[in-house]
């Protein structure tokens, strides 16, 4: 008999298997080696400004990657569009440096790409991580012109826990708290995200997240979608677990119910290779992002 304690799954182990995404990859170590090398290559070959500080702690930085020509030249004298990217890692692992590789393809297309860094669990709470995402975006928006960026053409994208970050950025009171326009984000692309944190509580990740019931609800963006006209594309991999597909599908339904323009894009990838479609400037996610930024 199924029990609601495990969100429709017959046991804790069954729910764990849905969220232990690394275990679904036959050779996760090989994937890590590949992206670490590709990221080092990107930092060596793409013009960049690393570790720009947006807050007082050592973790509060972002990396900016620039096109080979100046953004103004690449866009025929106009300021460049930008991608603001938030990495995943279950709020507990990796830094911006492991994800530099997502920048190469879009800088080849004349984009500026920002890869955010942030503090991790258990050093800070999930709520503090969300605050850092917001502070990082606000800082970059305010300084966009210094990097040759058109602040009205910044697309946010994030992967896994970074998808959660994208959804939380979309629910930020930018005007009242940061002095930005009410809707400073041009478009949003959460990729294989986590939008309802409540099912994580009974899993092996629950103790690491250390969320109270009220925090699980407050930090679940699916439960607090706010109406806007900012277009979204919610992306997930058809080779991911059922729960990751459900998380994306249910979030898209919540966006649609709030009247937010939203498309759902399932791709034939697992949880990690899906980012190849962004890192390749001709990949399907990159092409969509370019179209959304320039609309």
What does this structure look like?
The chain has a single domain (4-294), classed as Rossmann fold (3-Layer(aba) Sandwich), CATH 3.40.50. By secondary structure, the protein is of the alpha/beta class. Helices cover 36% and strands 17% of the residues. The chain is globular and about 60 Å long. It has twelve helices and eight strands.
Strand order of the largest sheet: 1-2-4-3-5-6-7-8
| Backbone CA Rg | 18 Å
Q: Percent of residues in beta strands? A: 15-25%
Class from helix and strand fractions: alpha/beta
> What is the helix fraction of residues, given as a range?
25-40%
What low-confidence regions span 5 or more consecutive residues with pLDDT below 50?
Answer: none
Look at the structure and name the CATH superfamily: Alpha/Beta hydrolase fold, catalytic domain
List the quaternary state of the chains: single chain
CATH architecture: 3-Layer(aba) Sandwich
CATH class: Alpha Beta
Write the layout of secondary structure elements.
Elements: H1 12-19, H2 28-45, E1 48-53, E2 61-65, H3 71-74, E3 80-86, H4 104-107, E4 112-116, H5 126-142, E5 149-159, H6 161-169, H7 174-178, E6 187-191, H8 206-209, H9 213-218, E7 232-237, H10 242-257, E8 262-267, H11 276-279, H12 284-294
Parallel strand pairs: 3-4, 3-5, 5-6, 6-7, 7-8
Antiparallel strand pairs: 1-2, 2-4
Features of this protein?
globular, 8 strands, alpha/beta, 295 residues, Rossmann fold, 36% helix
